[in-house]
Structures are given as structure tokens and as C-alpha cells.
Amino acid sequence: MEIHYDPQLVEETVFQELARRERLEDLDLVRRFRSESDAIYDSHGVGQREREFDRLHQTFFRLLGLDFSVRAILTEFAGIEDKIATVLIGKAFTERDEVAELSLDCRNVGVKIRPRRFLDRPVLLRQMRHELMHVSDMLAEEFAYTYEGSLQVSSPMEESIVRDRYGLIWDIHVDGRLARQGKDTVLGRDGRAREFGAVYAKIPAPQREAIFANLWQAESLTHHDILGMAHDVREVLARAGDALDDTAHEKILLSGSPCPLCRFPTYTWTEDLREQLPKDTLKLIQEDYPGWEPEEAACERCLEAYAVHAQQ
After folding, report:
1. What does pTM read for this prediction?
2. What domain range is 165 assigned to?
3. Structural domain contains residue 51
4. Which of 73, 121, 131, 243 could cross-link with 100 by S-S, CB 3.0 to 4.6 Å?
5. What is the pLDDT of residues 195-250, one digit of tens each?
6. Partner residues linked to 235 by β-bridges
7. Do 160 and 133 have their domain in common?
8. Over 60: is that where the pLDDT of 99 sits?
9. Which ranges of the chain does DSSP label H, i.e. alpha helix?
10. Cα-flanking dihedrals φ and ψ of residue 113, to 5°?
11. Could you tell me if 110 and 216 lie in one domain?
12. How many CA atoms within 13 Å lie on the side-chain side of 64?
């Protein structure tokens, strides 16, 4: 398996590490780098300098030990080493950009990391381990990963919500397993619980905590399991087990829950319908849905349709 580094990442990381060493007055490699840089300016024309500086940066990337963490962490994932031909480490500009991707032929892995991660080895190890755990899942037959280029959703907003939920649940599953292995995690149990609570804030705390505990302790979620939960909040609620009462599914109005009338995923709820809707509109809805109560709320589209019908 070959490991390649983005030249821009290498250059920036080398400069940051040399600056750090200079502040600490650890100057041996700093002086050597400056000397070799000056030699390139003196000995090569403009057209050749870029190539020579790329070589210089790659050399000092190794001399400074900046490649050690990536090689070390890859040894923890034998399944990746056996199946992957090339790992490309690229530059991420933001934390959100720090992701791992698998090529469609499942032979190449790309991992984006911010350069400053390389200056803090424990942080880099945590981040790389987390991303490679995602790759390990994608390569595992039992996870049954399939690339979802486009989702069966009704709008870009819905697709964004589903993808964000998928990423959150998968991150919880990854960090839960790493924690049980005694490994440091990117965020930790409490941090992941806060993220989960922010996304699913409308689930009552006891049920939400039970769901999170179930996801954190899960040993073998599949791609289908996670995607199902990302699409359908009812599948998330089912993870609460005995902590969820029989009526909780209808009381929790989460973005993406099905409208009790049309049953389509709903991202804009209208509540307090006893006060907001005219009585004739409420009557029409209850004639079509005798078991429905205004406290269950409804989606905007259904309410607009019944409002028009009531005026006819």
C-alpha cells in the first residue's frame, strides 16, 4: 500500500513545524532547511524550482517525523492494508472538510486533514483513527456500504438533513466502538451525546438518552440501518426500547417525522392547531381522519390544501 501526501499539505505542515521548532530554539533542522532552500534558489531556474521545492518539502516532512503518525495508525487497520492500493492524504481547510472517502473501485482512500493536526500527534492519531474506522466500515461486507450519489428525497433541504443525520449517527457508532477498544476518540461520549441532543432536541430527555445509549453501545449497525434512521425518525425512536411509550411517536414532532395526515416526511410543522385553524377546517380534517387530534399537528401542505377546500 502506497501513501501519498498532497504537496500543499506537506509544504504548509513543514513550515508550521519548523516555525514551532524555531520558537523552541530547536534549530538544527531549521538551519538545514534554510540552507537547502537557498541552494535551490541559487542553482535552479524559475521553471525547475517548484519541482525541487516539492522534493525538499517531502524530504523534510519525513525528517521532521511528520509522516510517522499516518503510518502508525494504518497498522491498526489490517483490513485496510490488505484491500487498499493507495492512500492519499490531502489538505482540509475546515473541520467539516476532514473526511475520508473511498474510491468507487474500493482500491483507493482519500483522507483530508488540516495541516495543524500534524503538530499535535495525539490529536492527529484520534482524527486519523476515526476517519479510517469509517473506511474500515465501508470495506466490511457486513456493513454493506453502497455509495448514495443522490437520495430519494423531495428537496435539497431534506437531502442535507438526511446526510447530516447519517453522518452524526455513523460518528456515534464509530466513536462508541473505539471507546470500548480503549482508544481515544475525536469527541467522546459526552460530546457525541450533546451533538445528538442538539439534532433530536424534541425527543424527551429520558427517551433521547436511551436512544443515544443504544447507538453508542451498538456493535454492528449497517449502512442500511443508519440510512433508515437518517430518513425516518420512527426508526430512531424504536431504539429507545422500553423507554418509549406507545404514544410518543405521535407526540414528538421532529424534522423529518411523517405527517399524521399524508404520512410524508415533514420538515415544517404547524402546531397549536386548535387556536390557529378555523373550526370548519378542523372539521374537514377530522371527517377524513377521524382518529386525528389537533395536538398531533400536521404539515404545511396538508393544512394549505384543507384551508382551500374549506373555502369552496
Report:
1. 0.78
2. 156-243
3. yes
4. 131
5. 999 999 888 899 999 999 999 999 999 999 999 999 888 899 899 876 655 545 44
6. none
7. no
8. yes
9. 7-23, 28-43, 46-63, 68-74, 78-83, 121-139, 156-180, 188-199, 205-217, 223-231, 233-237, 248-251, 273-276, 279-288, 300-311
10. -135, 140
11. no
12. 29
